[in-house]
Write a structure and sequence with these properties.
The complex is a heterodimer of chains A (437) and B (222). Chain A has 437 residues and is of the alpha+beta class. Chain A folds into 2 domains: 312 residues, 2-Layer Sandwich (BirA Bifunctional Protein, domain 2); 87 residues, Anticodon-binding domain (Rossmann fold, 3-Layer(aba) Sandwich), CATH 3.40.50. In chain A, the strands form 3 sheets. Chain A has a 9-stranded mixed β-sheet with strand order 1-5-6-12-11-10-7-9-8, with helices on both faces. A 5-stranded mixed β-sheet of chain A has the order 14-13-15-16-17, with helices on both faces. In chain A, strands 2-4-3 form a 3-stranded antiparallel β-sheet, with no helix packed on it. In chain A, a hairpin with an 8-residue loop joins strand 15 and strand 16. The longest helix of chain A has 20 residues. The two termini of chain A are 46 Å apart. By secondary structure, chain B is an alpha/beta fold. Helix content of chain B is 36%, strand content 30%. Chain B is built from 10 helices and 11 strands. In chain B, the strands form 2 sheets. Chain B has a 6-stranded mixed β-sheet with strand order 2-3-1-4-11-5. In chain B, strands 8-7-9-6-10 form a 5-stranded mixed β-sheet. The chains are: A alpha+beta (437), B alpha/beta (222). At the A-B interface, strand 7, helix 7, strand 8 and strand 10 of A face strand 5, helix 9 and helix 10 of B.
C-alpha cells in the first residue's frame, strides 16, 4: 500500500470489529452472565488453540462449509492450517486425547473467537465470539434436555423475557429423506427445500421420484411439522421407518423431561429443521429471541465426532453467539447500565500522599479510582471526568479547603460534600460509606 | 399476548403489487387499498395487528431475512438471485414469469447453444446467471444492469441477456429471441426464521389464511 495514504493504516478489514469501552463493558457483562450459568451447572472452562491443522474442522474436504474456513500454510510441514472455525471439534479432540482417561461425564465450556469467511454484506462478522458447553459421555435424553434447560437459563440470566428454544431431531429428517433412496444430488435438493420449508419445490422434486406414496407424503409434511406437543403425535403417523421412529421416540422423551423442568412454554418443536452441522446425530436446538431476525444460540447431539479422533463417545452441546446476544439484549429493552470508572481524584496539593492514600483505600474496597495526572484547572478536570463517564470526583487542595479535607462531588447531580480525609478513609474501610458499583 | 403481536408484511412494488393487494383485500384487509392510488409506504390493520410495507421487490428478501418484516411477497427470481436464509412456505401462484437467456434473432440463426464456451451476458440477475452458466462449464462475462436489459445487445454492450419474461412481447419488440429457459418464477410468500419460531401460532395461522385465499384466487382465474 501507498505509505502516504493514511487510510491504508486506519482501514479495518471486512468482518472484524473494534469495541470502544462502553461496548466492551456490555460484552463483558454478557459474557460473565453466560459463563456464570455454565459454572453453576458444573461446567469447567477449557482453552483451545486459535489455529489447527485443517483436518480438525473439515474431515471430508469438499464440504460446503469448507469454503468458509480461513486457511493458510504451515511453513514447516507444508500442511494446511485453519483458524478456529468451530470450537466443538477442538473440544472433541481434547476429550479424545488429554482427557481420555478422566471419568465420564465431562462437562466442559469455552468462550472464544471463531473465524468464518462470510460473504461481504451478509450482515455477519468474520470474527465473532462463541460461548458454549459440551456435555460428554452421556447418550441419555436427560443430557439433551439439560442442554435445552441451560439455554433457557442463559436467556433468563441475560434478562431476555421473550425467547423460544426450537428443538429438532436431524435423524428424523434424515430417516424420512433417506427412505426415498435418492441420488446424492437429489438429496441435496430435497434437503435444501426442506430447509427453506418450500413445500412447492418439494412437491416438484418428488413428482418424478419412483417411491412409495406414504414416504413421499412424509417428506411433504416436513415443512409444516412445527409447533407444540401435538407435533409429536402428528409425526408418529409419518415415521414409517425405524430410524425416524427412534428419532421421534428420543425427541419425545427429551420433551417429556423438559415438561418436568417446566420449560415447555419456551420450547417449540420443529421436525423439519435440517440446519444442523454435518456432525450432528440427534436432537438439535436453536434459540431465537424476540425482535431479532436470526438465532442467538444453536447446538445439538454429536455422537460420532469424538470417535473421529479415536475415542467413540456420545456428546451434546450448544453455543451462544455474543454479537447476537447483545442485539437481543438491546432489542429486549433491558440492557444493563454499565457504569464507567467510579472516582476521579483531582489533586492540587504538592504533597501527593493524601491523594495516594484516598485512591488506595477506594481500590482496596473494590472501587475503581483513577488519578487526574494532567495539570489543568478544576473546571477542565471535571469536564474530563464527565466526558469519560466517571461517576464522582474527589478534589483535594482546592482553594479555601484545608489540607486535611477533601471535596466529594457527585458528577451527575453536582452535589458536593466536604469531609476530613481521615474520616473519609476510615468510613470507606469500615464499609460505612458505600456506592453502587 | 401472542395474539396481539404486530406482524409486518412486506409487499413488492411493481409487477406483483396488484395481485398482492388483491390477495389481502380478499381476506377482508381493506387498509391495503391505500397503496393502490397513493404514495403511501406503510399501512396498518389495527384489529388484526398487521402492518404492511411496500418496498422495492429486490429489497424484500433483505427485510425479511433481517426480521425488519416478518413476512413478505417476492418473485422466485429474486430468491434465486439472492439466496437468502428465509423460509418459503407458499407458492402464491400469481406473477408467473420465466427467466430466460435471449439473443438477437439474427444471431440465433447461426448460433449453437451447445457449443457455447465464452459469453458476454447483460442481466439484472448476476448471481443466478453466473451459477447457471458455470454449472454448464461456460465462462460467462456478466454485465450487471438495473433496467432496460433488452437494449444491451442492440448497442453492443453484450451479445446476450438473461432476463425475466412474462409474455415475450418486450423481447420481440427489441428483435430478441429466447434461447434457453433457466427457471420459472412465481410469487412466493417468504417468512423470517425467527418470526416463524417466536410468533408461530400467529404466523402459522396467517400462512394458512393466505394459502386458502391464494387457492381461491387461482381457482377464480382458472
Amino acid at each position: 500500500m501507498d505509505e502516504r495514504d493514511p487510510h491504508s493504516r486506519t482501514a479495518i478489514p471486512k468482518g472484524v470489529r473494534v469495541f470502544p469501552p462502553e461496548e466492551t463493558a456490555l460484552r463483558r457483562w454478557a459474557e460473565r452472565r453466560i459463563l456464570s450459568v455454565f459454572e453453576r451447572w458444573g461446567f469447567r472452562e477449557v482453552i483451545t488453540p486459535t489455529f489447527e491443522y485443517l483436518e480438525v474442522f473439515s474431515p471430508d474436504s469438499g464440504e460446503e462449509d469448507g469454503e468458509k474456513i480461513f486457511k493458510f500454510v504451515d511453513r514447516q510441514t507444508g500442511r494446511l492450517l485453519a483458524l478456529r472455525y468451530d470450537p466443538t471439534p477442538q473440544v472433541a479432540r481434547l476429550v479424545a486425547t488429554s482427557l481420555r482417561h478422566r471419568p465420564l461425564p465431562l462437562r466442559l465450556s469455552y468462550a472464544t473467537s471463531v473465524f468464518r469467511y462470510e460473504a461481504p454484506q451478509a450482515g455477519r462478522q468474520r470474527e465473532f465470539v462463541q460461548l458454549g458447553v459440551e456435555l460428554i459421555g452421556l447418550e441419555r435424553p436427560e443430557a439433551d434436555a439439560e442442554m435445552a434447560a441451560m439455554a433457557v437459563e442463559v436467556c433468563q440470566a441475560l434478562g431476555l423475557r421473550r425467547f423460544q428454544i426450537d428443538v429438532g431431531q436431524v435423524e428424523f429428517v434424515r430417516g424420512v429423506v433417506d427412505a426415498l433412496r435418492v441420488t446424492p444430488d437429489q438429496r441435496r435438493q430435497l434437503v435444501s427445500a426442506i430447509r427453506r420449508k418450500d413445500a412447492f419445490e418439494l412437491e416438484r422434486l418428488l413428482e418424478g421420484l419412483n417411491a412409495d406414496q406414504g414416504m413421499k407424503q412424509a417428506v411433504l409434511d416436513l415443512p409444516t411439522l412445527y409447533g407444540g406437543k401435538e407435533i409429536l403425535t402428528r409425526a408418529a403417523r409419518l415415521a414409517a421407518n425405524r430410524r425416524s421412529q427412534e428419532a421421534l421416540d428420543n425427541l419425545t422423551r427429551v420433551y417429556e423431561i423438559l415438561e418436568h423442568y417446566g420449560l415447555t412454554d419456551h420450547v417449540i418443536i420443529d421436525l423439519g429443521e435440517a440446519r444442523a452441522f454435518e456432525y450432528h446425530t440427534g436432537v438439535t436446538f436453536v434459540a431465537f429471541a424476540h425482535g431479532l431476525g436470526s438465532e442467538i444460540s444453536r447446538g445439538g447431539r454429536y455422537d460420532n465426532l469424538i470417535g473421529r479422533f479415536g475415542y467413540p463417545c456420545p456428546a451434546t452441546g450448544f453455543a451462544f453467539e455474543l454479537d447476537q446476544v447483545l442485539l437481543a439484549v438491546a432489542a429486549g429493552g433491558s440492557p444493563p447500565v454499565v457504569a464507567g470508572p467510579g472516582f476521579l481524584i483531582i489533586d492540587f496539593n504538592p504533597d501527593k500522599r493524601h491523594a495516594l492514600r484516598v485512591a488506595r483505600t477506594l481500590r482496596e474496597q473494590g472501587y475503581s479510582a483513577a488519578r487526574d495526572i494532567i495539570k489543568r484547572d478544576l473546571e477542565g478536570s471535571l469536564d474530563y471526568a464527565k466526558a469519560s463517564g466517571i461517576g464522582r470526583a474527589i478534589v483535594l487542595g482546592s482553594p479555601g479547603v484545608s489540607q486535611d479535607e477533601l471535596v466529594l462531588r457527585d458528577l451527575a447531580s453536582g452535589v458536593e460534600e466536604r469531609v476530613p480525609i481521615e474520616r473519609f478513609c476510615a468510613e470507606v474501610e469500615r464499609g460505612e460509606r458505600r456506592w453502587p458499583t | 399476548m401472542t395474539d396481539k403481536e404486530l406482524v409486518a408484511v412486506a409487499l413488492p412494488k411493481g409487477r406483483l403489487l396488484h395481485d398482492s393487494l388483491q390477495l389481502f383485500e380478499g381476506m377482508g384487509i381493506v387498509c391495503v387499498r391505500e397503496f393502490s392510488d397513493s404514495r403511501r409506504l406503510v399501512c396498518e390493520d389495527q384489529d388484526r395487528r398487521l402492518r404492511f410495507l411496500t418496498l422495492r421487490a429486490s429489497d424484500i428478501p433483505t427485510y425479511v431475512e433481517h426480521g425488519a418484516a416478518d413476512m413478505g411477497i417476492v418473485g422466485k427470481d429474486q430468491l434465486l438471485e439472492q439466496q437468502r436464509d428465509v423460509y418459503e412456505p407458499l407458492d402464491l401462484g400469481f406473477g408467473a414469469c420465466r427467466l430466460v437467456v435471449a439473443e438477437p434473432a439474427e444471431l440465433r440463426e447461426r448460433d449453437d447453444p451447445h457449443s457455447w464456451s465464452h459469453l458476454r451476458v447483460a442481466t439484472k440477475y448476476p448471481n443466478l446467471a453466473e451459477r447457471f452458466f458455470s454449472r454448464k462449464g461456460i465462462q460467462a462475462e456478466i454485465i450487471k444492469l438495473t433496467g432496460s436489459i433488452e437494449l444491451a445487445p442492440l448497442v453492443g454492450l453484450a451479445e446476450r441477456i438473461v432476463d425475466l419474461v412474462a409474455t415475450g412481447e418486450t423481447l420481440k419488440k427489441n428483435g430478441l429471441v429466447e434461447v434457453e429457459e433457466i427457471a420459472t418464477a412465481t410469487a412466493r410468500l417468504i417468512v423470517n426464521r425467527a418470526s416463524l419460531k417466536t410468533k408461530y401460532l400467529r404466523i402459522q395461522g396467517l400462512i394458512e389464511q393466505i394459502r386458502k385465499q391464494a387457492e381461491r384466487l387461482e381457482g377464480a382465474r382458472a
